[in-house]
Design goal:
Length: 125
């Protein structure tokens, strides 16, 4: 059975990397690179950080529940690919899930997403 392909379109927390390899190397050498990255991420609002943590845990649960039956790709909503997915599938809120490039679900209800996955699994039988 071919795995069900799930694309997750959501904004991601990011930090701007220092572009010069010399400065990056120096920060890494002194152990400051991870502190810099953590300082950047700590600037985000708490509800954003909560949403990213919750989504991460949710995707881990779905991965363990369906194991080899699904393949998940997380797409940054602000990337060119993420913007294309928003236009193509008319995604106006996040997180947005695209199941096998056919069905979409937008929201935070695990049961609804699992129902879509189960429906897709039963179609393959």
């Amino acid at each position: 059975m071919k795995p069900i392909y799930i694309e997750v379109v959501t904004p991601m927390l990011s930090s701007e990397e220092i572009s010069s390899w010399r400065y990056s190397f120096i920060l890494s050498y002194w152990g400051l690179k991870s502190k810099y990255r953590n300082a950047c991420i700590s600037e985000y609002p708490d509800d954003w950080k909560w949403a990213v943590d919750y989504l991460s845990q949710w995707l881990q649960e779905i991965s363990s529940l369906y194991r080899h039956r699904i393949q998940i790709q997380v797409i940054n909503a602000l990337s060119p690919l993420g913007l294309w997915k928003q236009i193509r599938y008319r995604l106006f809120r996040f997180p947005a899930f695209i199941v096998d490039k056919k069905r979409t679900y937008i929201g935070w209800d695990p049961q609804q997403l699992e129902a879509l996955i189960d429906e897709r699994i039963h179609q393959d039988r």
